[in-house]
Amino acid sequence: xxxxxxSNSTTSTxxxxxxxxxxxxxxEGVEFIFGMPGExxxxxxxxxxxxxxxxxxxxxxxxxxxxADTYGWLTHKAGVxxxxxxxxxxxxxxxxxxxxxxxxxxxxxxxxxxLDRLFKESHQVVDLVxxxxxxxxxxxxLVLAESAPELVRKAFKQAQSERPGATLVAVPEDVAPLVVxxxxxxxxxxxxxxxxxxxxxxxxxxxxxxxxxxxxxxAGASRDGCSAALFRFAERLNLPVATTFLGKGVFPDGxxxxxxxxGFMVHDYANFVFDQADxxxxxxxxxxxxxxxxxxxxxxxxxxxxxxxxxxxxxxxxVTVGIESSIxxxxxxxxxxxxPKRSMAVAARARDLLREELDRGRRDSxxxxxxxxxxxxxxxxxxxxxxxxxxxxALKMWMARLYPCYRPETCLISNGLAxxxxxxxxxxxARLARPKCRVLAAMGDGAFxxxxxELETAVxxxxxFVVVIWVxxxxxxxxxxxxxxxxxxxxxxxxxxxxxxxxxxFGAKGYAIGAxxxxxxxxxxxxxxxxVSVIACPVDxxxxxxxxxxxxxxxxxx
Length: 558
Description:
Blueprint lengths: L4 E2 L6 E4 H11 L4 E4 L6 H6 L6 E4 L3 H15 L3 E5 L3 H5 L1 H10 L3 E7 L15 H5 L5 E4 L6 H13 L5 E7 L6 E4 L4 E2 L8 H13 L3 E5 L1 H6 L2 H11 L3 E4 L13 E5 L6 H8 L2 E5 L18 E6 L11 E6 L2 H9 L9 H19 L7 H11 L5 E4 L3 H9 L8 E3 L9 H11 L5 E6 H4 L5 H8 L4 E6 L4 H10 L13 H7 L3 E4 L3 H13 L4 E6 L4 H10 L6
Parallel strand pairs: 3-4, 3-5, 5-6, 6-8, 7-8, 11-12, 11-14, 12-13, 14-15, 15-16, 17-18, 17-19, 19-20, 20-22, 21-22
Antiparallel strand pairs: 1-10, 2-9
């Protein structure tokens, strides 16, 4: 059943399949399509000329998939990417897989060879539905022209339903130009799912019987829009709250009960709070975000699972009570009945240690710049609603741990697939999705060059943001892991171009940081400029091993 319905028309008219697909996309509320044209999708690309949908021509299909992924992340509506068959479609797989593992709605539209050659070995033909099957919720090839509205509607419904993810529609080149009489299907929104009274009562009993409960909030909390309810829940019951990397900002880091983000590769300050907890209240937590074996290694903690979807099966995730409903409604219902808890001294100590670490970094004037100083200056330059995208690498660990967040989806981290190179194309989509917010992509030098060609897309489309490259001429996170486990590094060093000239060659502005004191004013200037800017900042990653050595020596009580 539904509480709202939208549809373009009730009278069928003759049109081509390509134009019908575009009408179906309009019916779904699509604003942007990110992609590249090819010989086999020319009818679809041509049909967009008469549409209000803005086509963003990219320089690599991988960039298109990351743009669609990020757009879906921030709008909770499926982002759409478009590619031709064979190699073009294959290039979409990385961002598609990222959307699937991080639970972002995405629809991939790909061309396919004509039906007259799909059954045999043929030029550029691969089984696209089979190829995408492990990294999508659903996929199909449009074989029957009249089924276009059903396939498009199903692709969006599957992508946007909890848990969100990626879907695929393949359009054979000889089907796209066929004439058909059909209309887009109505779009129905599901009603709010209410929590079970019985399960709420069991949850209240579980909380009342716990001595040291702690909350772990994940990406599902952001998707549910339950930050205000989580705030009320934590304050009413006096519970400490940690988030996953993907959940950063769903509970404000400035709050005295905030523990920061849980997910670092060694035992961090917040982990000591979970060590002492007897009950973990997971709020919109998906296991792909951070393995439960890391915070429940002995399988001895009770778990209260609150989510829109059922709990995944894992021996380290022993769910005592599970509530599958609107997260906000469940939190408010439980908070109204449960008893407040005493403050945990270990939680206050964990918060203090995290703040002290960031404060020390803020005052450090050494060069190359310490990671802590980079985090502090980026935070000082960005507003509470501005968006920073943290690419995968050593910088992700520093940003995830130390960057304070005050609102949901203002610090975007790939942590299900944890892929490199998403932040620059993602920044384009972030600025399109939230045009009033300033956007910054924090990237290592290795990740930057993986999709740096999309600087041209940003400049051409006048989508403005700032890229900060943490320069160490190395795959820093891999080196860190090698030194941590093997005591030495191997095959991780490389050389870089002149990043200032490189940025300028695309028509962007380029800056090179030569002293720690230059970073914050350069950030402020670049963020104020109405252009694309690239800031190259040398970073001192000798801090990596100092951090893990320090954390490795911590013993309770911290």
